[in-house]
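Subject — a protein and its fold
Encoding — discrete vocabulary of local shapes:
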Amino acid sequence: MARLDKPDSIIGVYPIELHPADLLADERFEWEVIGRPFATAAGKAVHVRLRKVSDPLVTELWTWAAHEQVSVKRPTKRLETDEDD
């Protein structure tokens, strides 16, 4: 039987620290990170590819200044238990 370690938490991270499966939200939709972030402009701008959760065929490339913090909902890992039924 699997259980969640703890509920998903909303944290602030720098854009370069985003992980695939992190969730971000704008005014209308929730987006999932689908690629690793990459930096341009001598590391001053960070870009990441996102997919709209409600319509996975829609993707966008978002850009932030490297020093900005981004609020994300980071899924937690599932822990396996050794319980016998």
About this structure: The chain has a mean pLDDT of 87. The domain at 12-76 is CATH 2.30.30.30 (SH3 type barrels.).
